[in-house]
Amino acid sequence: MGRDVPALVFTREDRRRYRIKMQECLEAFAQMLRESRFETERPQVGLEIELNLVDDRGEPAMRNSDALEAIADPAWSTELGRFNLEINIPPRQLTAGGPDAWETEIRAALNHAEDRAASVGAHLIMVGTLPTLRQSDVGEAALSENPRYRLLNDQVFAARGEDLHIEVDGVDRLRTYADTITPEAACTSTQFHLQVAPEEFPDYWNAAQAIAGVQVALAANSPFLLGKELWHESRIPLFEQATDTRPQEIKAQGVRPRVWFGERWINSVFDLFEENLRYFPALLPLCDEQDPAETLDRGDIPELGELTLHNGTIYRWNRPVYAVAHDKPHVRVENRVLPAGPTVADTLANGAFYYGLTRALVEEERPVWSRMSFSVAEDNLHTAARHGIEAHLYWPGVGEVTVPELVLRRLLPLAHRGLELSGMDSAWREPLLGIIEQRCVTGRNGAVWQKEMFHHIDAGARPGRHEALRRMTQQYMDYMHLNAPVHTWPVD
C-alpha cells in the first residue's frame, strides 16, 4: 500500500540529503544481512487487491473518499484514481486454517465493503482494466485527493518534461497523450506477498521472474482499455507507459524505465536495492529523522524509511520488500504481474499456483533460471500479455509451447509438489489447482470471457461499442458475486 506524504516542493538540499540517507540505509541493510538479523521462523504470505468503483450502470464512480469513509476499516485505502480502492488482507501462514478459511475471510471483507460502498452510490468490481473507462475519466480531476498522488504526478512530469504518450496495438489501436499519470489508475492488480529468509530470496525472486509470463497468460483479465480492444492483458503495456519518466531521447540512451522487469538473475536481495540507488533518481526525496546506523548500534531495528520509500517508486514486476513487523525485520517478494479478479476463487487459485510453483522450482537441483536467459523470461511476459492463454511461450527442455500444454504437462504437477512441500494436503490443493487445470482445458480466462461476451452483445442488439462494454461489465459483476470460477461463466 502507498505511503502517505505531505504536499510540498523539493529543494536541491532535500535531494542531496536524501541521497546520503539512502546510502546510509543501504549500508545498514547490508550490515543486517551480514549479521542475520531477519525474521525467518514464521514465514507468511499476504495479499493486496486493487478494485474499481462503479455506479449502478457499471460506469466509473469517482467516490473513493466517500466509500473509504463508509467502509471505515484500516485495511482499506485509496489508490491513484478516484475510482480505485485497495484492500490489504492480513498476512497469514500459507496453510493456516486451510484455503477455505482464507477465502471466507476475503469474501467477508469484500462483501462488507460492497455493502458500505453501496450506501454512497458505488459498487466494487475486481477487474484488470475497467471496460467502461473513457478518456475523460482519466484526466486530472480523477486523481485521488491524497497529496501523495499529486506530488508523485508532479515529480514524474518534472522528470519527463513532456506529456505521456500511450500507444498499444491490438485488435484496435490506442494512441493518446496524457498530462497526468491518472491513466495508471486503469491498472488494477492482485499482489501476492511471500516472506522468505534473506538467503532464500534470490532463488524465490528468480523463480517468480521465470514464471511471470505463465502467470499472466493464465490470468489475463484486461482486454479493453479506453474503449479499445487491445492485448489480453493490456494492463502490462499501459502500466509501463503511464509512469515513464523518460522522454524519447533518454530512452534512446538506454536509461532504465521505472516500471521494470529487470535485466539479470540475482544472487542476493541486496542486488535489487543496490540497483535502485544506482539507476533511479529519487521521485519523493523525503527524509526521516531516524539514523539507521545509530539505531542498529543500540540494538534496535531501523525502519530504513528512505530506502523503502524509494523502492515504492520503482515498479518492478516482482518487487523486493523490506519491512518491520512486531519489532522484527523481514524481506519478501511482492508479485505484481497479475490483474485483479475475476473472482475470489480465481484469485486464490492464482495464488496457489504461484506459491506452489515457486516453491517447487526453488527445490529443483538444476534451477530453471540456470537454463533460461533472463531476456527470454521478459519476452515471455510480453508475449503472454499480448496473447493471453493462447500464447506460445518458451520453457527449457520443451522450447516454444502453448500455455495450456506447458501448464498441464509440466508446471501444474510442480505446483502440486510445491504446495505439498509447504504442508498443504491434496484435499486443499485439488480444488485450487483444479481451477487452473480447467482454465487450460477450456482455454478460458477473464480476458477470453470479456472478449466473447462483448462481441456477443455487440453482434446481437448492436447497441454501440460503449453500451456493449457497459452491459458486459454489468454481467461480469453478476458472475463475480456468484464466485464461480471464470472458466465456468456462460456467454449468452
Automatic annotation (TrEMBL):
Record carries keyword Cell inner membrane: no
The record's Pfam families line, in alphabetical order, gives: GCS2
The protein's UniProt keywords, in alphabetical order, are: Ligase
Cite a single GO MF annotation.
Answer: ligase activity
> Known catalysed reaction(s)?
L-cysteine + L-glutamate + ATP = gamma-L-glutamyl-L-cysteine + ADP + phosphate + H(+)
Taking the record's annotation, the residue ranges forming a coiled coil are none
PANTHER family linked:
CONSERVED PROTEIN, GLUTAMATE--CYSTEINE LIGASE 2-RELATED
Q: What is this protein called?
A: Glutamate-cysteine ligase family protein
Q: Which organism is it from?
A: Streptomyces salinarius
